[in-house]
Structures are given as structure tokens and as C-alpha cells.
Amino acid sequence: MEVTDILIKFTLIVIIFAISLVVAMYSTYAERKLAAFFQDRVGPNRAGPWGILQPLADGGKMFLKEEIIPKNATPFLFIVGPSLAIFTACIGSAVIPWGQQLTIGSTVIDLQVTDINVGILYIFGVVSLGVYGIMIGGWASNNKYSLLGAIRAASQNISYEISMGLSIIALIMVTGTMSLGDIASQQHGFWADGWFSWNFFKQPLGFLLFIVCAFAETNRSPFDLPECETELVGGYHTEYSSMKLGFYLFAEYINMFISSAVMATLYFGGYNYPFMDLVSSAAGTNVAAILGVVLLFGKIFGFIFFFMWIRWTIPRFRYDQLMDLGWKTLIPLAIANIIITGLWMTFIRG
Amino acid sequence: MEPLSNKRKVLESKPLNLLERAYLPAIAKGLSITIKHFFKKPVTISYPEEKREFSENFRGMHSLKRDENGKERCTACGLCALSCPAEAITMTAAERQKGEEHLYREEKYAAVYEINMLRCIFCGLCEEACPKEAIYLDGDIVPSDYLRKDFIYGKDKLVEAPLNQ
């Protein structure tokens, strides 16, 4: 690798990191604002115009609050928990294709940090590591409620990861690749082989299963059992204060951002949009690529909005119902989806 | 039993059909309800800047009235204290001295008049009991404070401002 390549990759990593942090920051603001709108309220409006400085104020408060480590907690693991949670949340962004190539002079800039050929597996690996952050944090707090929350988180994540993996298998059967870059570029255009080119139209059931599992994996309502206040005080982060709690909450929002990006890439065409070729021949490939990035972010924000819309609509599941849904409904459905996809590929598509 | 109204609805619990068990139609319905609220106007009143209009018969803080000449109407008869179910009102009567005719309307007046705002239930019975039309609950909400003793309102807080000369 040449020096310029390394520099380009490094800049890209920094930009993506910064974007994920900013998106996560403003997701907290958006969450509160949307919650207010869904409940006929105004929401935060004191810090800056329309309250847009609220995340900064929240962040400052988080940093300045007293930091408490319980006496009988394991100090090292107590700190490792939130760090791991936010670390695993951040590294998922490495394989997501954010756009097509940009050409500046003779340099071609790939808007994806790395296109490894097992991209989806990497995402799954990272996501399943995320539960360690919660598990370690809950265990190290030396608090029964935290431990219960952590165990809930672990069993919930493992259960839903199975159906998530199964729902992805059908998608991989259709696309024939596990590289996210390839999956995104396959959905190019508007109409291909008698289908709308986005994978959503080929795998609607798979998408439904995936999005349900994504809600469970990110511990978002209605699957936010690890942190349900009424039963478990605060769940796995009961004992956490100041920025360590902030990291846990932040990790949830970054996770939401990354899983929205994954959903947009896998099922909604990623950076592709209809009539992309017309735009690139009329205004140049760079303009088309940048428009693609903008639209990808539009899709991502759409999904984040959907996450929040669901949160302020559907009440939390009971724990046994959650397990029932995961094991008795989603897994059979995912297997049925695989069989249907297989039959369709063998007999109809030929 | 004879139903008291025609509003009675007999609830029956029957097993859910497949569509109901699928849960998705219910979710879609719920989402449509919340999105309707998303576009509604907020009902919030931004309190310190914007105050909500009270109804005409709102009972707020008490005020001791003056008459058209600026004299205090209260004659310390004690009927308000007597009618007060919460026993929030106490007063000490005094005799009007020479030279004070412009201050008090009659020979007897309240030297000390105190209402304990923590006990007051804003029932308005003092207002009704007063034969001199001296006390009205026509003020604002009683402001919050840090100490209990600050909620005992004396004449300095209760008596209407003097008429403009």
C-alpha cells in the first residue's frame, strides 16, 4: 500500500468515526424531540435555537457528574464493560459501503474502509461481541439487578442472532456473495431480471425478520428488556454513573446507526438510487456518487426514525413472550424463508 | 340485574385468530395512531414566558381589599378565621388610634393578619364569610419557596397596594 492510500483510508476512518459519533449524539436529541412530537409536546428547546445544543449540554453534564464505582465491584471489568460496548459499536462501520468511488485527479477513492469478502460475517461477529460489554458490565457491578439485566441481554442477543443469521442466509443465497460492497453494487439500477433491483423486493419476509432481530440486537424497545426500569431498576447499567453510563447509552445509539446502515445496504440498495446512471452521465460520476452518499444517509435516517417511531408506539414485551417470539416464531419463519428462496431459485429462476 | 345505563358492554374473551396472532396488523394500527399525533400541534404552554389563562372562578392567592378611599376594609371580626375549615387564618385585632382614620375604615382593625398558605385549601369560605367584602381569592398561584415559615403570609403580602395619590 502506498502512503497516499494509507492517508486516504485513515481520513476516511476518521470521517466515518466522527460521523457515527455526531449521528449518535444527535440521535439522542432526535429521540427526545420525536418522543415529544409523538406525545403532543415540544421537547428540549432551551439550549440554543430549538434546543439543538442539548446533546452538548447532556455530554458536558455526563462528564462533570460524580463517578461512582461500587465498593464490591470489580474495578477493571467495571471500566472494561462500557469501553467494550462502545468499541464494538464503532468498529462495525468499517465494512459498510458508504458510496461509489470518487475520482479526484488520478486518485480513485473508495468510499468504503475495507471490502472484505466476509463483510456480513464480520458485522455479525462484531454485533455478537457487543453483548460482552453488557454482560461484563452487568456482572462486574456486583448487583443482582444488573446481573439479571445482563443475563437477559445475553440470552436475548443469542436467541435473536440465530434468526438474524438464518434470515441473512436467504439473502446470501440470492446475492451469492457475503461482501457488503458486492451486495450494494448488485442492487444498482431500477429494474433487473423482472424485479425491482433492491433486495427488499426479493426478500420481503427476510427483511421483516431482519428488522425485528435488529431491534432485539440493539436492545431497542419493544425488546429493551435488559434495561427495563420497572422490573430491574435500570438493568445492566444500574450501578453506572457519569460518562460510563453515557458510553452505554451512546453505544446503543451508534448500534442503531450501524444497524440502520446495514439494513439500508442489505435490503434497500445502499447508496444506489433509481436512474443513477442518468445522473452520472449528465453531471459526472462524482456528483452521482455524492448524491448516493446523501441518499444512503437519508435511508439510514429513515430507519432511525422508524426505530424511534416503534419505540414510542409499542409497549415492551414480557420476557417469556420475547423468547417465544424468537424461538417459536422467528426461527421457523426464517427456515421457511430459506426453503422458499431455495425452491424459487431452483425451479422458477432456474 | 337491571343495567343502570345502556353503556354496559359485555366483554368476551375468545382465542385470537391468525391475523391477530401475527401481531403485525396491530403494530401497523398502532404506528398509524402515533404518526397522527406526530403532526398534531403541541399542547404545551411554555410556563414562565407564557401563562395559561385561568377560568373566571379560579381561586388563587388571597388579597385584603381597600375601599374607595384607600382604607383597609378588614375590621378583624374573625368570621373568616371561624369559617376556615383548614384553620389557616389567624389575626390579632387592635383599636384605631387618633390620626389613623385615613388607614382603617372602622374603629377596629387587624394589626396582624396571617394566612398559612401550606394549610389553606383555597375553598373560598373566607371570601363568603366576610361581611365587609375585605378578602378575595383573586390573586395568582402562590409561589413556591424553600422554607415553611415563608409560607405564612402576613399583611405585607396580603393587603392590596395603596391607591395612587
Automatic annotation (TrEMBL), chain A:
Compartments reported by the entry: Cell membrane; Membrane
EC number: 7.1.1.-
Catalytic activity: a quinone + NADH + 5 H(+)(in) = a quinol + NAD(+) + 4 H(+)(out)
Keyword terms: Cell membrane, Membrane, NAD, Quinone, Translocase, Transmembrane, Transmembrane helix, Ubiquinone
Record's bilayer topology term: Multi-pass membrane protein
Presence of keyword Ligase: no
Transmembrane segments: 6-26, 76-99, 119-141, 162-180, 200-216, 245-268, 288-310, 330-348
GO terms, molecular function: NADH dehydrogenase activity; oxidoreductase activity, acting on NAD(P)H, quinone or similar compound as acceptor; quinone binding
Gene Ontology terms: biological process: aerobic respiration
A GO cellular-component term linked to this record: plasma membrane
Enzyme class: translocase
InterPro entries membership: NADH_UbQ_OxRdtase_su1/FPO, NADH_UbQ_OxRdtase_su1_CS
Similarity section: Belongs to the complex I subunit 1 family.
Subunit composition and interactions: NDH-1 is composed of 14 different subunits. Subunits NuoA, H, J, K, L, M, N constitute the membrane sector of the complex.
Function: NDH-1 shuttles electrons from NADH, via FMN and iron-sulfur (Fe-S) centers, to quinones in the respiratory chain. The immediate electron acceptor for the enzyme in this species is believed to be ubiquinone. Couples the redox reaction to proton translocation (for every two electrons transferred, four hydrogen ions are translocated across the cytoplasmic membrane), and thus conserves the redox energy in a proton gradient. This subunit may bind ubiquinone.
The protein, known as: NADH-quinone oxidoreductase subunit H
Organism of origin: Mucilaginibacter auburnensis
Lineage: Bacteria, Pseudomonadati, Bacteroidota, Sphingobacteriia, Sphingobacteriales
TrEMBL record, chain B:
EC number: 7.1.1.-
Gene Ontology cellular-component annotations: plasma membrane
Every 4Fe-4S ferredoxin-type domain range: 65-94, 111-140
Name the record gives this protein: NADH-quinone oxidoreductase subunit I
Main location per the UniProt record: membrane
Provenance organism: Mucilaginibacter auburnensis
Coiled-coil blocks: none
Keyword vocabulary terms for this entry: 4Fe-4S, Cell membrane, Iron, Iron-sulfur, Membrane, Metal-binding, NAD, Quinone, Repeat, Translocase, Ubiquinone
Entry membrane topology: Peripheral membrane protein
Residue positions binding [4Fe-4S] cluster 1: C74, C77, C80, C130
Cofactor descriptive note: Binds 2 [4Fe-4S] clusters per subunit.
Any GO BP annotation: aerobic respiration
